[in-house]
Design goal:
heterodimer, A: 337 residues, alpha+beta, six-stranded mixed beta sheet, 8 helices, globular, B: 516 residues, mainly alpha, 0% strand, binds adenosine-5'-triphosphate, binds magnesium ion
Chain lengths: 337, 516
Amino acid sequence: MLVLDGVTKLYGGQPGVRDVSLTAPRGGRTVVVGPSGSGKTTLLRLIAGFENLDAGSLTLSHRSLCKAGQSVPPHRRNIAYVAQEGALFPHMSIGENIGFAVPKSDAGRSARIGELLERVGLPPEMIARRPHELSGGQQQRVALARALAQKPDLMLLDEPFSALDTGLREAMRDMVGDLLAEAGITTILVTHDQAEALAFADHLVVMRAGSVADAGPPQRLYAQPADVETARFLGEAIVVTGALENGVAHTPLGMIAVNHPDQGRAEILVRPEHIVLGPDGAKGVITHRAYRGAQWRLEIKPDADVPSIIVDVPATVEHQPGDVVFLQVAGKGHVFA
Amino acid sequence: MADGPRRRLRWRPAHPVVTAFAVLTGALCLLPLMFVVYIAATSGWQVIADLVLRPKVGALLLNTFALLGLVLPLSVALGLGLAWLIERTDLPFARFWSWLVVAPLALPAFVHSYAWSAFMPRFHGLGAAVLVSILAYLPFVYLPIAAQLRRLDPALEEMAQSMGKPPHLVFLQVVLPQLRLAIMGGALLIGLHLMAEYGLFVLTRFDTFATVIVDQFQSAYSGPSANLLGGVLVLLCLMLLGLETGLRGEERYARVGGGAARGRMVQALGKWRWIVLIVPAGLAALSLGVPILTLGRWLWAGGAEIWQFEFILPALSQTAVLALSGALLTTLAAIPMAWLAVRAPSKVQRWLEGSHTYVGALPGVIIALALVTITVQVALPLYQTVATLLFAYVLMFMPRALVGLRTSIAQAPVELERAAASLGRKPLAAVWHTTIRLAAPGAAASAALVALGITTELTATLMLAPNGTRTLAMRFWSYTSELDFASAAPYAVLMILFSCPLVILLQLQADRPERG
Ligand SMILES: Nc1ncnc2c1ncn2[C@@H]1O[C@H](COP(=O)(O)OP(=O)(O)OP(=O)(O)O)[C@@H](O)[C@H]1O
Ligand SMILES: [Mg+2]
């Protein structure tokens, strides 16, 4: 288990990471997601020990890694780090790269190198090649095998799939997930891609401007985010203002059921998949449509004084721009506290 | 080109003419090598055996190997240590030390040894030769190592650390292998200088092939012996080149990917921080302090008397004329080859370029010997003329001019040449009016480097200059040979002043990223 408490790193007075506290459960998959410049890489580098904390503490399996001036150097942490670019050693063959952390005296060394190469889906003849003779995706696989060879207590992955194209990316993500789960290695993955974050995480951390905006199980964060920005970051979001009364919100989109005891006005989150087009409800006009294969994505301007909203409808239903439709909210809305 | 505008638009580069020029300069560059082959072929085994298989030659070989064997490892170790301290630790005033480490380049090697023989007259032999060589040539290995250290991807070192390697293993297993090319390139440069240098070893009274060849040449023009020793020296240089090529192998340490390089962690030296200052400060004291001290002393002792302007001014103007015309000629001669190398790279072109660059590895004595022999045998009117001397400079400094020209021509877009040609210029004129003009600033810089090289060239100048020539280096040398250190001082000061731009240029160049 990795515990960060009040971790802060300043760059010339500007916070790179500010007062971050989080817990990565043992053997679990924590994903840190956030927009560019939000401090994700900085956070990983602090955990790996490439940079020193300005405040806070870091504990891995009850061993303090960093506290008030006392810092365990990176080579004594046994934390593996896979960088965005792979960072393979250019002067070594693929085999030497993978075996870099395995002592030469280990009996099963070369067998293990071969096995890891196979596990990441590379043919055995690649073992003698040099990094520059591999494609970006292959290099990334080698980087991963190299990190696994180390048998780390914690695996840090900094956008390891961002150089890959979509198909390969998902395949790699699944493969990595399986490998890590099998080895039972605690993992922290950093990404700016919300879909990837939701797909990979047991535990999701959303960062913004160097701080943690929200953290928890991905389902909870998607359905009940702490604030509007988080809601928007994790997916399409419709946010309306309404009056709460006895578990129901009266909004321009009609009545929306909410799980909230308070009375008074509040902002309410509705995900587009909860909107259905029906015979009655809030009136609106279709302003745009885009074909997406299985669905039409419609942009609808409600008559009420709220911004346009996006709704996906099955492709079998024909809608034209200019059509008048009626919107209903099925399912519960989320009230921002 | 005369038959209508359609032909003109389908302009093709003027390869035939340019290639012909490049072949001509390439052939001229091969003259020294042909001379060595000619000597070997015409001497006959008996003569070769008599002149080469002598104890004297054995002693010279021993000297050369001792020199290489001591200077190269020590320089590499020192250069590596300094580069690491300056680039990778929190050494106080690191930038300042970096300049001080490079500054000794402003002193020609023979001025270094002049300073030392004035400072410690009884210090000579192998020890002195090794010490002064290291002081004079250390920047050649320091500069590439420091530049490479700056360029290395910090992510690789972090990665090795996170994989459990303590700092010293990270250095040995990740950093050092990636410095290999820089180290070997620097060591090769020093090695070639050690073989070629004359003045330094005369003053430290240490015999090398170069000093003995010049001696024999000057004493009674004992041609065959000097020539054969020259052959041995060429073999040694080629051996060194081959050794470096072999060790370098086909390695490519290309950086894989181009991730945003973050600032790297500097090694905190802790309580050593001020103690290790002894290393750069001690080096600066030896390589700069001693020359400044001795020069200052002689200048002070000599007073106004040593500034004999009736000698200094002619030396100055002669040097200027030789340096400038030599630089101009060298640059002009290098243009066809440089243009071909950029615009029409091919296998043939690479061979051609090789014939231009290898002369840079040949000692000045060899080039001088070759030219003396050739002029005496086939072109006597050219013997001991300014023309021959300038030709020697062109050969010696051709590689320098080529490197600079190539870079600047590569930066001039080829489209301009085409556009100029489509506007009706003849091909050569098109190249001249576009690329060469755009490349002019870069060409001027490399010409300046050549001029600076000529300013402090001693060996070939001594051997080839017409009677009555008295350049700064020659004046300096004749006073120093008469142990009139005070009178030599003003000439040393002038040569140092002229060399300062060289130091600045090299230091700035080292910061630029390598061209792919
Ligand atoms: N070495 C540094 N010096 C100064 N500022 C830095 C340094 N490293 C990071 N920063 C700043 O810290 C902030 C966080 O950067 P970081 O690289 O952690 O963001 P990120 O979330 O990883 O972004 P991305 O998704 O683009 O990789 C940024 O504002 C960045 O400019
Ligand atoms: Mg990042």
